Give the backbone structure.
Amino acid sequence: MNIALSTPILWVIFPVVLAIVSGIFHRRQILNLLLTSLTAFVLTLLAVLLPETLTISIGPVVIQFSESLGFLGRQINLSYEILPFIAFGYGITGLWLIFSNIPVVPDYFRSVGLVITALLTAALGVEPFLYAALLIELAILVSILVLSPTQDKTSPGILRYLSLQTIAMPLILLAGWLLTGVETLPTDSPLVIQTMIVLGLGIALLLGVFPFHSWVPMVSQQANPTVVSFILMMLNTTILVFSLNFLDRYAFLREFQTIYTVLRLMGILMIIIGGAWIAYQENLKRSFGFAILSEIGFSLLCVGLYEKGGLTWLFLLFPARAIGLWLWGYSLTLIEQRSDSMLIQNLHGFARRYPILTLGLTVAQLSLAGLPLFASFPSKFAIFTAIFTLNPLMGIWGFLGNLGLFLFTFRMLSALLAPNEDKQIVGWSVSEKKKVYLPILVFILILIFLGLLPDVFLANITETLTSFTQLQ
Amino acid sequence: MIALSSPAFIIIVVTAMIILIFRDWRINAGALALQYIAVFILVSLSWPIGVAITKLIVGWMATAAIALTCMRQIPSEAPSEPTASLFFRGLAGLLVIMVIFVLAPSLQASMFPRLNLFIVQGGTMLIGMALMQLGTNAEPYLTIFSLLSFLAGFEVIHAGLELSTLLTGLMAIVNLSLALIGVYFIIKANENKSVSEEER
């Protein structure tokens, strides 16, 4: 028996339908949790195991997948080359969803999370690719439901996030139209420069690049850390991969050296901004936002170092960053649940009561900062080596910016480890239950394995680069 | 429709100024509904009327969703504001209008030579006023009104550049979703207010 399906039906329509069904049962938490996280993991597994022929045989049943799905006169193409990235997207979605059974995480997070991943997957495959901006906008609109749940007041940060991301969409669409007309013009034509400015503005707004970054720490301070970490990780990663399409498809953009210089400068600037602000940050949740800004800086730096192999490091950074951010978000959510305040000075002695949670938070921060032995180290070491070779001054500034997160971690640790005489916390005890500390310990080990053997665990995701035929 | 383009442009200027200056949801919702008629007229200069009318229907649906929610959730008395702030916003609006009148012809000549000047002026006017509005308020429903105006301005210009069914459909979904987010914000604000009043 032959069954004909298409990859967009499997990785876009099916999860959306399932998310709607699970949303109906959002009060039955275990059913909701199993339905959404199992879907994410099954889709991950299928993306990993699907052969290049896109055919699966189960006994007498042969399922033949086509790569595209027609929709209102246009196509959504999810080709074999993009499957490693889809596997990564659904894999990390599954990770966030399966550990989201914490009372402070909004009920709808699991359904909304699945919808966001499906929309972002569609964004990677829609043709013409510029329409991805609309799908990304839809994902952003859906994310508001969990970033600003009903019981919370609508904060200025959320309104700023919504406004800036909505303004970005028309700029991307306009840039797309302009790009088709300027391809044949000489690169010094004013229209080419105008097009690049419109495109650059659109992408900068979407990624929260300086000076459009202020919403990131505001949202991270207000919203639930598990939700923030998931949404910022998924959105930024997809937007970066979507942006690579511009370099891949337009030769004049790819060959315009000024773009790489600007990207490197903006990358270093973001690392400095993130690092400088986080270094003296008092609020644990707000510090998370500044760390995200630093990570955006590293991503821009990687694209700016394209000619030196930066894209490979960018794709190697994604899994390390995803696990680091998940661990950070998860630990923060649990800390918020157990503490009245998220200010460092009010958390004296916390580590003595909750040592595993503190360890999880510390390792997540150090891993993202690029400490040797941890997952981000191999990529960040390569990035710093390349930027030092290219421009030592930029390298020094980037290095100093990156020190901000180390400084913050040590400040935080010294406060959390100190005894608290007022609350009579002097001795040490492990107050966490097994179901809380086990995932933390497992993912600390994974971060170490990824750091020690990056080629073994991370090589697959770099295959996504084969879908960008001109960028290899 | 070409004969209607200059009245449409005037409607855009007037309604955008009203939305910028006033804070009463009734006045703003009326102005936004009127604005979508002008948007429809300008879009129909580039698209067949059958397709252009989707902009009007979607716009009115979005406005109706927000207005009906405001009717149920926001107290009936209009918020009082000092005349100075109305005056300041009026001046800011006039500044935007002047800038658009100066910049639009050169923008049309350099970037959109195929488009009618009214389309470029109408679109940029909506975008400019919406950006000014976004910068001068922190009210959730006014932010949504501004974003809807901003998108309408973009749609006026983009309609002259490209006609795509998928794009039209997706833009309609984005506009309606934005309106639903507005509804969500208004209901949430009211629920939180009721809870805090009960706690007192």
In short: The CA atoms of residues 304 and 410 of chain A lie 31 Å apart. Chain A touches chain B at residues 71-74, 131, 134-135, 137-138, 141-142, 144-145, 148, 150-154, 156, 159, 162-163, 166-167, 169-170, 173-174, 177-178, 190-191, 194 (CB under 8 Å).
